[in-house]
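Form 12-C: Joint structure prediction
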Amino acid sequence: IAGITQAPTSQILAAGRRMTLRCTQDMRHNAMYWYRQDLGLGLRLIHYSNTAGTTGKGEVPDGYSVSRANTDDFPLTLASAVPSQTSVYFCASSDEAGGPTDTQYFGPGTRLTVL
Amino acid sequence: GQNIDQPTEMTATEGAIVQINCTYQTSGFNGLFWYQQHAGEAPTFLSYNVLDGLEEKGRFSSFLSRSKGYSYLLLKELQMKDSASYLCAVRDSNYQLIWGAGTKLIIKP
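Section 2 - Result
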């Protein structure tokens, strides 16, 4: 593994189903993030984690939950999917949240369609 | 509210120079980032400005004026592979990134 991986690459999901998007990084970065990207809108932060064991809410957290049991993994769960959650989901990580550069590096994304 | 404005789309010619502008209104400022995103791919980091002035990195340069809430990304000697979306993002007082919707750059031969 090099960088950040996400799984699945794409998924079609029936409304009301539960879904977990996986994200793993091997850069030993402290901070991790989940964004959604919709046409015509900027990336919007769903949840973040500044370090293992802590999480925080972003701009659009409703309907999503996260956990950060260890440094490498940051799964995003949709408890009961709705069509408005159709989007491309990107996971990102950075060495130090709020640090001098705090450059975020992105995974390849998961394209999710909720019908 | 917080707002990042960029042009939706720009067209330029291979070999030419293009400037992509970004204006912002955010609660606090802790740096501005530019990312490149090819269609269907992840955003990749291009540049970071926290002080006023120009940062040059090869064919790409980024400028910041904090007093004007303004930045631009300058791309020189355009190549076809530069066809992509360019995303401007500002880190606010909570150290969260606020993203613009991106500028789609189309390069014509």
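Section 3 - Comments
The CA atoms of residues 18 and 76 of chain B lie 7 Å apart. The mean pLDDT of chain B is 95.
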